[in-house]
Amino acid sequence: MSDILASKELSYFVTYGSIVLLKMVIMSPITGFLRVTRKVFANPEDTVGQNVKVIRNDPDVERARRCHLNDLENIVPFFGLGLLYALFSGASISTLLWHYRIFTVSRLLHTIVYLNAIPQPSRALCFATGLAVNISMGVQILMNNFSL
User: Fold this and answer.
1) Cβ atoms of residues 64 and 27 within 8 Å
2) 29, 87, 128, 137: which sits with the fewest CB atoms below 10 Å from its CB?
3) How far apart are CA 44 and CA 38, in angstroms?
4) Within 13 Å, how many C-alpha atoms sit on residue 132's CB side?
5) How many other CB atoms are there within 10 angstroms of residue 86's CB atom?
6) Helix, strand or coil for residue 37?
7) Neighbours of 134 (CB within 10 A)
8) Handedness of CA 4, 7, 13, 18 (dihedral sign)
9) What are the angstrom distances between the C-alpha of 141 and each of 20, 29, 128?
């Protein structure tokens, strides 16, 4: 068991998994910052002491929220698949590392593109790249471990 925990595969997963999880965590303060600076609050109790109305449809706040939701839809599966990939895929270190790198870069670029409203197909390409990595890892895990 200690060999597994000290493996290069797991070490790379921890590194790249931490990067994308931290990126996802940072989306909450970004959304909060946009809410406060634009005085856009979703709940009445959030406006205590301020003379503002509850607004739920600011385009910048909603853009940050949607970006964060997209992270939840993509980074959470990466975390599961990436861990299984490190442990059970049988992939070479190089292949594993490139899967992790491509996914991480695609998610970082996705956030930059999304928050800055860069025209399509830039966001779709970033999303599709990350999705392709997740699918590739899942297929390889199944192919290496398939048994009935």
Assistant:
1) yes
2) 29
3) 15
4) 10
5) 24
6) helix
7) 19
8) positive
9) 21, 35, 20
